[in-house]
Amino acid sequence: MKATILLGTLKKTGLSNTETLCKFLSGRMGREGIGCEIVKLINHRVMPGTYSNIGKGDEWPSILEQLLDSEIVILAMPVWWGNRSSEIQRVVEPLDELHDKVMAAGPSPLGGKVGGVVINTLQLPNLH
């Protein structure tokens, strides 16, 4: 079984609290035999828009392929000013392409997957 965590931290360097939570969760899943990869979105180029392949250098298509290849998909984000991070918003928008397939009476490419959300709203102690 494979899981992908999309990490929406805004911290380019250093370990953020949200990333600490993701590493903790990944370790727990690993103990259960679930392979888990954390995709730190701020280190990838995801172009704005609601469809894949929208620009040269856009890494969204490969990230989407990884999500579709996973049985578990988790969005992990800090909350800033009462909203999700801009990095998570940038991946929510192109997911609209999948919604269009469902609206056209097709099956959802995300159907049958387990989904989850990690939301960091507090300063956390070290969980290691």
Please explain how this structure is put together.
It contains four helices and five strands, in the order E-H-E-H-E-E-H-H-E. Helices cover 30% and strands 23% of the residues. With 128 residues, the protein is α/β, with parallel strands linked by helices. It is globular. The mean pLDDT is 87. Strands 1, 2, 3, 4 and 5 form a five-stranded mixed sheet that branches. The chain has a single domain, classed as 3-Layer(aba) Sandwich (Rossmann fold). Helix 1 links the parallel strand 1 and strand 2.
Q: Secondary-structure blueprint of this entry?
A:
Blueprint: E1 2-7, H1 17-31, E2 35-40, H2 60-68, E3 72-80, E4 83-84, H3 86-92, H4 96-103, E5 114-120
Parallel strand pairs: 1-2, 1-3, 3-5
Antiparallel strand pairs: 3-4
* Average pLDDT rating: 87
How many discrete domains? 1
- What is the β-strand count? 5
Roughly what fraction of the amino acids lie in strands?
15-25%
**What is the 3D shape?**
globular
- Which fold name is given in CATH as the topology? Rossmann fold
Structural class: alpha/beta
* Low-pLDDT windows of residues: none
Give me the strand/helix succession: EHEHEEHHE
Number of helices: 4
Major β-sheet profile = 5 strands, mixed
So what's the CATH class? Alpha Beta
Helix share of residues? 25-40%
Give me the Rg, rounded.
15 Å
CATH architecture: 3-Layer(aba) Sandwich
Report the end-to-end length measured between terminal Cα atoms.
24 Å
What's the CATH H-level homologous superfamily? Flavodoxin domain
